[in-house]
Amino acid sequence: MKSLSILVADDDPGLLQLMQVCLTNAGHAVACASTGDEALELLKQQHFDLLITDVLMPDGDGLNLIIDLKKAHSPVRILVISGGGKYFPAKDCVRLATGLGAHAALFKPFGPPELFEAINRALAA
């Protein structure tokens, strides 16, 4: 896999840090955001090949990010990750996200092999 510029958006600081280390060690340039609004600002400021976003986050969620990217006709590939939420099971979160245009999805919890497989699916879609 070639080196990618990746934005990871998730409100879980532990998962965000683990993904940053894993992706950086694999040779990718990684930026992180803990809210949807923060991710949107980063998307406006720089180019990313891939957005990996949680579906449910405070202050703008992954669904809003997908909608904004699709409205802008952005070439950024989108991988959604979800463990569900208080009111929505993970299956429903992923179904909504892929219906809005996410290129691939991954259910939490996951390990590095599943993450890299999902990245490949997002890039190939």
Explain this structure to me?
- Helices cover about 45% and strands about 20% of the residues.
- The chain has five helices and five strands, in the order E-H-E-H-E-H-E-H-E-H.
- It has a five-stranded parallel beta sheet, with helices on both faces.
- Strand 1, helix 1 and strand 2 form a beta-alpha-beta unit.
- The longest helix has 13 residues.
- The relative contact order is 0.17.
Q: What is the average of the pLDDT values?
A: 92
* Rg for CA atoms: 13 Å
Q: Kindly report the spatial arrangement of strands forming the biggest sheet.
A: 2-1-3-4-5
Estimated helix fraction? 40-55%
Structural class based on helices, strands and sheet pairing: alpha/beta
Characterize the largest beta sheet: strand count, sense, and whether it forms a barrel.
Answer: 5 strands, parallel
Order of helices and strands: EHEHEHEHEH
Distance N to C terminus: 15 Å
General shape = globular
Low-confidence stretches: none
| Number of H/I helices | 5
The portion of residues forming beta strands comes to 15-25%
The strand count comes to 5
What's the layout of helices and strands?
Elements: E1 5-9, H1 13-25, E2 29-33, H2 36-45, E3 50-54, H3 62-71, E4 77-82, H4 90-100, E5 104-107, H5 112-124
Parallel strand pairs: 1-2, 1-3, 3-4, 4-5
Helix pairs in contact: 2-3
